[in-house]
Amino acid sequence: MDEVAGKVETLVVRSCGLDEGVFRLDAPLRGYGLDSVRAVDLVVSLEEAFGISISDLEAAGMVTGRDVVDLVRRRRAVLP
């Protein structure tokens, strides 16, 4: 697992209150209890951790952990 995926895993685990080792990148985040409140917490954590901005539309597209990793990579690629 690379740096981005590892950090995303840590943030999802923290936001959803999961035990270590439970999270899988390809599993739906809702299955881990990611509701609207936790999703906002996750987005704020991602923005702070990676120095990026995530729009509401982008956040709505975060269905799996892999979606989150891909989004973070895309957003980081456009930073000046």
The helix count comes to: 4
CATH topology: Non-ribosomal Peptide Synthetase Peptidyl Carrier Protein, Chain A
How much of the sequence lies in strands comes to: under 5%
Distance between the termini: 26 Å
Low-pLDDT segments, ≥5 res: none
**Share of residues in helices:** 55-70%
Mean pLDDT: 93
Structural class by helix and strand composition: mainly alpha
| Envelope shape | globular
Using the coordinates above, name the CATH class: Mainly Alpha
Number of domains: 1
The SSE order reads HHHH
Count of extended strands:
0
The name of the CATH superfamily reads ACP-like
CATH architecture descriptor name? Orthogonal Bundle
From the alpha-carbon coordinates, what is the Rg to the nearest angstrom? 11 Å
- What does the largest sheet look like? none
How would you characterize this protein structure?
The protein is an all-alpha fold. It has a single domain (3-77), classed as Orthogonal Bundle (Non-ribosomal Peptide Synthetase Peptidyl Carrier Protein, Chain A). 59% of the residues lie in helices and 0% in strands. The longest helix is centred in the middle third of the chain and has 15 residues, at 36-50. The chain starts with a helix and ends with a helix. The mean pLDDT is 93.
